[in-house]
Amino acid sequence: MTVARAAVNVVRLGRISYRSALKVQQQHIKQHLDSSSTSPNTLLLCEHEPVYTVGIRRAPYPPEEEQRLKALGADFFRTNRGGLVTFHGPGQLVCYPVLNLACFKKSVRWYVCELERTVIKMCSKFGIEASTSPDTGVWVGDNKICALGIHCGRYITSHGLALNCNTDMSWFDNIVPCGIVGKGVTSLSRELGRDVPTEEAVPKLLEAFTEQFNCTLTYN
Amino acid sequence: MAMCAAIRCVSANFSAALPLLTRPAHIRTCQNTLRPNVLRTLYTSSRLSGALKFTDKHEWVRVEGNVGTVGISNFAQEALGDVVYCGLPEVGTKLEQMEEFGALESVKAASELYSPLTGEVTEINTNLADNPGLVNKACYEDGWLIKMTIEKPAELDELMDEASYEKFIKSLDS
Q1: CA–CA dist A212, A215 (Å, integer)
Q2: What are the residue boundaries of the structural domains of chain B, listed by start?
Q3: Which of A44, A82, B131, B162 would be a feasible disulfide site paired with A96, CB 3.0-4.6 Å?
Q4: From the CA of A28, how many Å to the nearest CA of chain B?
């Protein structure tokens, strides 16, 4: 008996504010939870204007820290995801899978691991050797190329991953990315020594996602 | 009368000893000598006053008098990974059954917690602030999350007992 592969619908949001992307995610989450409709799993792809975001561990980022970061010209959001502080901005491919883990495996630990493996697979398609470490995320040596932070409620996932393509990396100098002292950040452009725009990363990321999650992608 | 008193003393000592037998560590050492079904009876019956009930979202509640202690199951803590942070409600928070009351963070993932009952939060496990790993290491004991009042005892009947929960999680392995 062949088991049907889960279907995931890809939605390209383009350059969108962080606030708007949160609203889109909430709409998709609501569709999942509203049992009267069979909601498709969705993969949202977008880029944000400069914004710093933090997760549920808020204590390390009091109002003074929020003001400091806003004064640098970025927006600031406190979210319900896991993970510490990170930056999103132009040149960074942000991916928000809003999935029902019941279609895959009901384990948040498994899901995060699969996301990491997806990005590692994508990096290898660029000829970059990436890896995981005890700190969640995808690394090239001691430098993080992709940050991860998710939320899960009733097995519906939101937030996701942020892959540096040709991001202006100086924005990361203003924070301790993901709260990890002593390690750095990198991007596809830095690793390959040439400009790699987010457009170039999209098809490779989607390819890796469909392989790793064993799903079919649809485009509406 | 002296005989009655003696018997009462003996039975009091015996029931005091029973809870010790129910602690998982002791159970494991007994497994070679006791038949499994005898083991289960000992384990379950001695916890009648504090039997665990489970939700389908893998929270458990243990009732002792008017207070329910709430935590997450072994299945849940394994599916989460190492817990690094527990976001718990304030004492006095009123909760409805199935309402979100907090979140646990593991592997950069924040997973919501759902109240098994309707009631008011009377205590939160402050040990989890410095030692969130207790949720993984001792999910049924020192890793408890909150204590709450039980406003609607009938809600307990809707929850799964241990045997039903075991069946439930087996059915999840797909």
Answers
A1: 8
A2: 54-152+160-165
A3: A44
A4: 17
